[in-house]
Amino acid sequence: MRVGEGEIATALRSAAVRHEHQLFRHRLGAPANGSLPLEHDLADEQTWAAYGARNLVPATHVLPPEHRAAVEIEITPVDGLFEVFIAVVNTTPAPQDQLIDGVRPYEEAYLDTRLYQVVLTATLDVPVEPYELEQVAQSHRYERSVPAFGHASPVSHKEADGQTTLRTEFAATEPTWRGYPRRESSDAVGRQVPIATSFASLIADPVGTVSTLVDLLDVWVDDKWGTTALDALHAERGWNDKARAEAEKDATAARAEAAWVRAGLDLLHTDPNVRDAFVAANKVVQAAADDYVSWHPFQVAWIVGCLPGMVDPKRHPAVNIVWFQTGGGKSEAYLGLMLATLFYGRYTGVTRGTQVWARFPLRLLALQQTERFAKMVMNAEVLRRQDPRIAHTAAFGIGYFVGGGNTPNRLRKPDGSNYYNGPDPSDPATAEACRVLDNCPLCGQGLSVKWDDPTHTMRHICQNSACELAGVLPIWGVDDDIYRRAPSVLVGTVDKLAQLGQNQAFQILLGRPHSLCPKHGYSASPTWCPVFGCKEDRRPVPKGFGHVRLEIADELHLLDESLGALDGMYESLLQKISEHLKNDPFQIVGATATIEGYQNQVRHLYDREARRFPVNGREAGETFWSTTRKGDPLRRYLGVRSRASTMVTATREVAVVHDQWVRDLCDDPKSVVAEAGLDATDAEIVEEARRAGEDLFEVLVTYCLRNEDLTSFVRDPAVRELLESEDNLAIINGDTSPDVIRSAVARLRNPPAHKSERVRLIAATKAIGHGFDVARLGVMAVMGTPTQASEIIQASARVGRRFPGLVVNVINPSRDRDASVFRYYPEWIRYLDRLVHKVPVNRESVPVLKRVLPGGLMAWFLQVLDREWITGGRRRRSLADSTAFRDAVRDGVLDRALLVSLLRHGFGIDDTSVYHRMHREAIDVWVDDQLATLPFRAEAGKRLPDLLHPSVPRSLRDIEEPLTIYGEL
Ligand SMILES: [Zn+2]
Ligand SMILES: [Zn+2]
Known about the structure:
The protein is of the alpha/beta class. It is globular. The two termini are 42 Å apart.
């Protein structure tokens, strides 16, 4: 039903008549044939009037254009209630249907038929029945209701004096509040006791300190989750049976969490090696920490909870996920566990070899985390040297292990032969390309990077003679050096897993070097030293060579779709091969930003159960570990939808307004302070506001979901005009080189005095959402709404770190998804971390399996079968050589049954399950194909991987054919 059209049209007409401007006068004739005005026509009023009289429709003939609108109302019965839809409909006739003078139609360019600043208010004398938001996980913890949905606009809702008022709004705002770690809690007799987590007290009395914490946790759990407490909540929140059952489930989870931490405490109590390793980890963090003296309670508890998995991963295989929204600190938690693992290994007989592998889905993230990791590892090395029990073992070192492109994978001295055409390692430019860190992680002084011929390695050298680690640091950035030195800790990208099917040397990381060259380090090959032409006598590997025992997977939620599916398959291969080599299972820990969907994801990635820490509290934002201070602002989200412009253009306008506002704030802070409703006579406030303009608000971060948006934004002339120099703009996306990012971060943290050198605008994609750590950023514009809630959580966490931040979310008017989110924008923000998001990973996909079979085959050959094959006969080459493969098939060393079983085992394909029938068939067909054709295509000098189809990936990202994955999730 449409109402009010006549009334609205009349009102609009009288508004149009009231204004004093001259109406547009078309040129005479149709098509226009009056002449265009010349310069003398524009000389003054008179000449212009004369021109108009000759060439334009007389002013008296011009009719004002018409604007019309109506209110559309639809009423639908739903479940015994009525759903009411009310909208303003623009019924203005199109320009070509309106006449300028009763004769000539308007041209589109001259008549804007849009209606601006429309507000619709509806008043009811009854309360509205709210909608349930199905996108939000159901919970006894909070409402997930929305009183009304907006339609192309947000809608506000007020109930007062028995009346309900719904009103459309131009923008939707939603504040979020800051969370803090809990610092004290009640003990069993109700006294408030501090939760002690200082490094000093954990070093002096680890068992006592952790006992106090766990006791307080138990009291908290009893107090908040006991039957009495639940009964009270039940009554207060009016739970139904389902909500009560859910609350009981959460209560059980809370008790299980407390028991999980206590199990770690017991181990701390009974196993002196665990205790010593835990204390050593605390000493290292204490030494490495610049400005803090204690952990957050959740960090200590999580590390302690992970200890049983560190000692006996077979009995404790669950993947432990740390999730923490407030103030971060996830990295410190897993760094703490990493340190405990390093020392525990050494105290229990491991003398050398790689122990920890931290993998990140993004290069940028790996790079930024390397600094943190290196600081911890180098401090651990200092402590190791001082610890008589382990001083004789190999140094703790770190390797930066990323997909090609960042640092070279292998270096060789040019020797005049044609075998090597890579860069000359003694060239300083090559050394720079291999640089992992700018400064010594220990003393902070600049590092030099130099090629060393005798050891054939690219070295990071600290030249500060006062530094405890002065000299060559155990830091490696070239893959080849990493394999030969087997540093204790690897930090890198997920896609490096592909090396499993590429490089025989990978088995060194799995604890299986063949021998040690006194000059060049470990070798995986029974035949050669990895350095070409080396004639040294190789020695047996020293006792106690370890293997990777802890895997750290950060930003787990980013491992999705094809990367996640491939990673899942390779992960499975890695675990199976490692177990085949008689290693204990890895302990796997992870960090994630989303609270839902992790179980499914971990099952697909690792084929294990997952435990998230911490579990939910009774209220969102309230756990034993942390508390939210309502009213202490964290960030304000502002959702806006542009009308007559694209999202990028609207964002440009945000940038222009921001720029002007910051200038005003710096030049005329008084006016801006007054506009904001603050006391402009208070000199202190004015000065603080001015400083905020130079510091907190100076930089606008624009976040783009797509690279195309970023490109059109930074090319916009109005945006270019805001910039004095290229230095004013920092572009952060997947293609940005690490040194450009480092330089931008440095200029953001310590802004240069000169305006033209300061970063004032950041244009970024997803790449900035992780670890781009600049505490002063305060304002952000987000273009569009990401499909994954985690993405906007991560992105917007860049602003408001220390002081409240503002996020302007520009809704993309041309995307349905954005339109739908805009309908309930405040709720979308409020429930952001509870939005159900099934991470699209499917390890059971047959196309993915087919894609990984060649890599799987090569992995078994290189990491497992090769050594026995090569040493089992005279003059045998690696199975990576096509003729060796042919000979092995001929000799019956490789046969169909073996290949099929290795592939099934490696990728977790069950031998009998009906569910895996298609998977088994795919493997059978592929193996038959290879056995039927490869032996005939084998040729001297031809590598086996080059004959395999599809190709063996070098990185999980560089698969040439896009992979389409279908699957029911
Ligand atoms: Zn140093
Ligand atoms: Zn050698």
